Amino acid sequence: MSKKIKLSEEELVLALRNREKIAVEALYDMYSASLFGVISRIVIDEATSEDVLQETFVKIWHSFPSYSADKGRLFTWMVNIARNLSIDKLRSKDFKNHSKNQELENNVTFIDEQRNTVYKPELMGIKDLVQKLKPEQKSILDLVYFKGYTHVEAADELGIPLGTIKTRLRMAIIELRKNFN
User: Fold this and answer.
1) For the chain, how far is it from start to end, CA to CA, in angstroms?
2) CATH 3.40.50.720 correct for 121-177
3) Domain segments of the chain as ranges
4) In sequence order, what DSSP letters do the residues of 45-97 get, joined into one string?
5) What span, in angstroms and rounded, lies between the C-alpha atoms of 74 and 21?
6) Architecture of the domain spanning 9-94
7) How far, in Å, CA of 39 to CA of 87, rounded?
8) CA 141, 146, 152, 157 torsion: positive or negative?
9) What parts of the chain have a pLDDT lower than 70?
């Protein structure tokens, strides 16, 4: 295990101003645990907190010319960067969407485990309904929904244009919906 680098705040500030490699290593060794603690109290998810920590160090490196010792200690400045990036992450659309999707996935998995259920379209009668479709619709539905092909992959597999795949798929879904209304 390598020895951790420890510099005084003045030495670290000088190394950062001079863009020295040791500055990045010292920053990480000296402050990663503290900054991660700040971040993980705001962003609960550990993987996301690690990403924000990485972003924090990148921002510290790129923004360092704006740091002024007259305005406060280096650590306080870095904590503010970490805190602001954490809050920005929580407010971001990607994070909100990911959280909603995770929540949904976790709930579905939890419900499946509680009820000991498995997704089996044949038990819902879907496969029987698909059998009643036109053969060209049936083959596309089979590839896309039961075998997991993308629309492009299905077009390649069947040797027909992508637009035709999408049209037939839409028509098949419209036809299936008639059974549920």
Assistant:
1) 66
2) no
3) 9-94, 121-177
4) -HHHHHHHHHHHHHHHHHHGGG--GGG--HHHHHHHHHHHHHHHHHHSHHHHH
5) 18
6) Orthogonal Bundle (1.10)
7) 9
8) negative
9) 1-2, 93-127, 180-181
Q: Which two tokens mark 91?
A: 């407010």
- For position 18, what pLDDT does the model report? 92
pLDDT tens digit sequence for 122-150? 445 666 777 788 998 888 888 887 777 88
101, two tokens: 């999707």
Closest alpha carbon to 108 in 119, 97, 94, 99: 119
Q: Which helix (H) or strand (E) holds 135?
A: helix 135-141
Which residues, at least 6 apart from 60, have a Cβ–Cβ distance to it below 8 Å?
27, 78, 81
116 secondary structure, DSSP code: T
Cα separation, 17 vs 60, in Å, equals 11
Distance (Å) of CA 41 to CA 29, 59, 142: 20, 20, 46
